[in-house]
Design brief:
alpha/beta; about 25% strand
Length: about 230
């Protein structure tokens, strides 16, 4: 199963870009726009790592880190969960010391290079003993190499467009699970409000056709009125 990360970032564009990159690198990302929502998701998702962008509209990242570490009456989350603060790039040494004093495990100044952030995430997860996201996924006849973004079916490469690949990654994380359309539109496309759209259905159809051109399938099974699963159970 993918490693779960909680990302608290107020700016939708930045949050969306970071969520997409992290999902492509094998993480299961839940996003929050503020401190209150982040604490709720910390209870529900029990993430392996938390990314806190500064500032948040209802608390600073440092205050939120402190609340995670101290816990709150009636709330239940892992108070030892690794936390990385995404702070302002002009922060001085005192700001960084304060962040570590509040309990963060690492501090990354913005703007940052994504590859460096990814390396820091993996380093913190190694130190905490949490398993890193798998680089190689197999689901029936399908194999996915995240490092190269290569997808093969029965050993033959299948070329996929960006969203087709992201949809496949999401479905392959639990191949026989039925993912609802709302879940897929939220997690793959970043939709917060789901109206009438054929986006998912058209991508699922193309993905099914491409995988089926070299494999026996069935692949990307439509569960009528609910959503999709990658493999027939």
């Amino acid at each position: 199963m993918p490693t779960a990360l909680l990302l608290a970032e107020h700016e939708p564009g930045s949050r969306g870009r970071l969520e997409r990159n992290l999902r492509e690198d094998g993480f299961d990302v839940v996003g929050a726009s503020g401190a209150g929502e982040a604490l709720e998701l910390a209870e529900l998702a029990q993430p392996a790592l938390v990314l806190l962008a500064h500032p948040l509209p209802d608390a600073s990242a440092l205050d939120l880190c402190r609340r995670i570490r101290q816990g709150e009456p009636g709330r239940c989350w892992d108070r030892e969960v690794p936390v990385i603060v995404l702070g302002p790039g002009d922060a001085d040494a005192d700001d960084r010391v304060r962040a570590f004093a509040r309990g963060c495990d690492d501090y990354v100044g913005s703007p940052f290079v994504y590859d460096e952030l990814l390396a820091r995430i993996r380093a913190v997860l190694r130190r905490s003993g949490s398993p890193p996201a798998a680089e190689w996924i197999e689901a029936g006849e399908i194999a996915i190499d995240r490092a190269t973004r290569w997808v093969t079916v029965r050993g033959q490469r299948v070329a996929l467009a960006g969203k087709e690949y992201e949809l496949l990654l999401e479905l392959a994380s639990d191949p026989t699970r039925v993912f609802t359309k709302e879940q897929l539109l939220r997690d793959v496309w970043g939709y917060r409000l789901v109206g009438r759209t054929r986006t998912l259905d058209s991508h699922a159809s193309r993905l099914r056709r491409k995988l089926g051109s070299v494999g026996e399938g069935p692949f990307v099974v439509n569960v009528w009125g609910v959503g999709y699963r990658l493999l027939d159970s």
